Amino acid sequence: MKEIIAVVRINKVSATKKALVQVGAAGFTALKVMGRGRLVEDKAVIAERRATLLALAQKDDYDTEKLITEFLDGTRLFPRRMFTVLAHDEDVSKIVKAIIEANRTDYNVGDGKIFVLSVLDAVRVRTKESGDAAI
């Protein structure tokens, strides 16, 4: 039994939910979280992303520029969604693959992270089933 934790972009929540349902995940929980990943060292990627974000903002606004700069240099936390999925060992690879396919972008930065952890036990409150039967 495994726990899969996926941190994804906010705009990928619907695609992630759809992918999890299609792949047959027994259930999942989604939480609003704040954080940041590893900083991108490639200045060209950062410059390109900065230009794209500023163009999307469509404002000549100091606050918007400041937010984008802090987003890209790692000084600001930003909103993400965290999915938690309990899965049978044999289902882990197809669930991870589905999450990756739903969340991969061409931005070269910030597509998310997936963690897979071992789970010692699970108990279904309603029926008191435990172990794999509780999933």
Strand arrangement within the widest β-sheet reads: 2-3-1-4
What's the rounded overall pLDDT mean?
A: 88
State Rg.
18 Å
Number of helices: 4
Beta-strand residue fraction = 15-25%
> Termini distance?
9 Å
Structural class: alpha+beta
Order of helices and strands: EHEHHEHE
Low-confidence stretches: none
The oligomeric status of these chains comes to single chain
**How would the global form be characterised?**
elongated
User: How many runs of DSSP E, i.e. beta strands?
Assistant: 4
Determine the fraction of residues in helical runs and give it as a percent range. Answer: 25-40%
Major beta sheet, specifics? 4 strands, antiparallel
Structure, explained:
With 135 residues, the protein is an alpha+beta fold. Helix content is 37%, strand content 22%. The chain has four helices and four strands; from the N terminus they run E-H-E-H-H-E-H-E. It has a four-stranded antiparallel β-sheet with strand order 2-3-1-4, covered by helices on one side. The mean pLDDT is 88.
Write the layout of secondary structure elements.
Layout: E1 2-8, H1 13-23, E2 29-35, H2 43-57, H3 62-73, E3 78-87, H4 92-103, E4 113-118
Antiparallel strand pairs: 1-3, 1-4, 2-3
Helix pairs in contact: 1-4, 2-3
What attributes characterize this protein structure?
135 residues; alpha+beta; four-stranded antiparallel beta sheet; 4 strands; elongated
In short:
It contains four helices and four strands. The protein has 135 residues and is α+β, with helices and mostly antiparallel strands. Strands 2-3-1-4 form a four-stranded antiparallel sheet, with helices on one face.
